[in-house]
Specification:
By secondary structure, the chain is of the alpha+beta class. The protein has one domain: Alpha-Beta Complex (Peptide Deformylase). Helices cover 23% and strands 32% of the residues. It has a five-stranded antiparallel β-sheet, with helices on both faces. A two-stranded parallel ribbon has the order 1-7. A hairpin with a 5-residue loop joins strand 5 and strand 6.
Length: 188
Amino acid sequence: MILPIVAYGNPVLKRVADEITSDYPDLSELIENMWETMYAAHGVGLAAPQIGLSIRLFVIDASLFVNEIDALKDLKKVFINPIIEEEQGELWSFNEGCLSIPDVREDVSRKEEIVVSYVDENFTPQQLKLNGLAARVVQHEYDHIQGVLFTDHLSPLKKRLIKKRLTSISKGSVSVEYRMKFPKKSKR
């Protein structure tokens, strides 16, 4: 089932999410719904807070970038209770966007290499060492479960320059091709 994606301004996007256990209710169905929602919105990743659930879960399928970087073809994974153990290397900028913040893209600097530990959908412990775009995608989704948005990484000047656009998004004054829930949309 395709779920609505919560828009900028919803408090769930600013909350540090809670860990879950293997007996989380209807977890398999939730994960399937998250895949379906992400694909319907043409996303590369989707975190549970983006569908209104403050839990430490995100899904990633970076195959969208495969034409550019072949190493991403196998980055289709479910991350439950992840922890970024290490971030290293140089900071590098890349233009990021977010399904919860449609039509806003900005350059964000992140470390080029990470080590992430997590459990998969079967609650089997995993650890990955990622670099480049693969690391960036995980860092972006990880931020979501930490209550951080990519706009939080911007300079104060950049934040002021996009403030009106962010306010418009929270009010639902944006055109999107996927279902969204807007926190400040007037109910007429």
